[in-house]
Specification:
about 325 residues; alpha+beta; Muramoyl-pentapeptide Carboxypeptidase, domain 2; 2 domains; 4-stranded antiparallel sheet; 12 helices; about 40% helix
Amino acid sequence: MEYYTEQAEFVNFYFFPLLVQSAAMKTYLTIWLGAVLGLFLLTGCGLETAASLPPLPTLAPTGLAAVSTLPPPTVNEGTAVADATTVAQLPIHTPEPTATATPTVTPSPSPTPTATPIGPCEARMPGDDLFTIVTQTYGLSRDYAPQDIVLLTDYLPVDVTLGYPTELRQVALAPLLQMIADMQNAGLQPWILSGYRSYSAQAISWEKWNREEPERAAILSARPGHSEHQLGTTLDFGSPELAEIVGIEDIEFHTYFYQTREGIWLAENAHRYGFTLSYPRSAQELTGFFYEPWHFRYVGEEMATFLYESGTYLTEYQLINQPEPCIP
């Protein structure tokens, strides 16, 4: 409307003086002014009509399918509320986790143990095993000799070795030296009469006993290859008291050794140093050897203590707990 008002003020400003000059012309001017105002009104309506025309449609790019936009569906308020209520009342189903099955371990069949083949005893090479079985039945190869042999005269005085070139494996040396020192500190006089004996040396000993006492040779000495002395861990002990007890001068070996102070001490204490009595009383049937209270073998403190406390002896334990070592 401000537009129309400005148009009227424009007409009055320029044409009003002319109108007041002639009354006759008032009627004419009034008609003319109405026509002009009508023209302006028509012009204004045309602008509004033109401004309200709808925009031209936008064409889709060539080659693309026209996408029609569907109007949103009319939803009845009552139905919507009912549906919303229904949805709200439905339980939420949370799927339970599927338990993973524990894989079943198929046990692999244990291989059937294959018995280690054994060869003839005359070819037997036991190595450094402290528990090697050596009896009148199971022997050693003539070629077997331990590799760690030491000469006892390098470590002990002559009043112990009597000057004999006695040898022993290195593994048993330290326990022996300690045992001899403890015996001497107790006022005893132990002798060491024999140690490592090779196959050939045992053959000489066997021939001697077989020549001098053929009926008793089998219980007084071992055939070559069947002596524990070949292992290098066995010693024969003596005592200066033995000759007086037996009544025979210069005697070195006799079963009465067990009555000497050295024999008694060894029987009660040798196990604490790893030595065990190989051929005790009443064992001849199993060992094949006569009672030798002077014959001690090094097997380590643990085994020697076990044998002492259990009241058994080495050969008995070996034959029960170890497999057959060789074919006689």
